[in-house]
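Our collaborator T.R. sent over the components below with a one-line note: 'Predict the complex.' Nothing else. No constraints on interfaces, no templates requested, no preferences about which chain binds where. So this is a plain run: every listed entity goes in together, and whatever single assembly comes back becomes the starting point for the next discussion.
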Amino acid sequence: MMPAIVGLIPFGFVAGVVSIASGLTPGQGLALSFFSFSGIAQLVTCQLVAAHAPLPVVVAGAGVVSLRFLMYSAALAPHLAHLDRGWRALLAFLMTDQSFASTVKRYSEPGDARYRHWHFLGSATILYVFWQAAVIVGVVAGAQVPANWSLDFAVVLTFIALLVPAVRTRADLAAAVVAAAVALATAGLPYRLALVVASIAGIAVGLAIERLHARRK
Amino acid sequence: MSTWLTIGAVSLATFALRAAFIVFADPHRFPHAFRQALKFVPPAVLAAIVALGLVVADGRMDFSAHNLRLLAGLVAIVGTLFLRSTLAAIAIGMAVLWALQWLAPHAG
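Returned assembly:
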């Protein structure tokens, strides 16, 4: 858990600073963070709000970058099926990349698994508290940080830090390269629709290459 | 007002995706092809965001050496390949960008 927390702090700080730099009020920046609790979704939302994108485009952008949650949800659901609805809703709300990884690892260990949702709740709550603290500091600092520090560039760097370990196979690499190329080719589209178009193109190519590879075996 | 609506809609969307199978649906009805496709969400989405963030400035594409963000971003990608940490990526990228801005104050 410690490395996950250390990695979250600069990311949360940047998310807070960027929400103010994108024109959100401090209250809006904090509400977005408290209720969506997803750094990537928060940053994409801020970018799109700053670009004056209409609501459906903002939701599509934030939704596309959050599709991985569907995969996590499917993976954890069987372990949590014995809990009541309130418990499941709470755990779903708190689920992030880091708490998913830590929870999946815990459920894969041998022994009595009935009470492991407490481990999920604990790790997710700790991450929630540290994340929101970092965002609050970022929101407060956001107004003081001079524009010529180019702190918005830290957002792109955060995405680079997430992208590099996400590319593990050749199909991943193809998905990434195609998505980047399509993003640049469609960069002129209004409301940053390039992000959604490029993501779909990259996913399609990754899938096609994996299928081709599987058929050859 | 519309910003508050957007915040509400984004929060609902992220919760709906997280809760889809934990709260609402049976994961066994999750088609295999869809599961395969989701694997490519992180590399595709993140690469698109990074490409746009590094190359497009003020609505125009800039592949030249005057684009300091592109140079700093490429150094950060190489650095992250070796160091694999969020902190390292931010530290390397910001240090390179600030150094380049100091050396070439009139570039982008």
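Summary for T.R.: Chain A has two domains: 1-162, 167-217.
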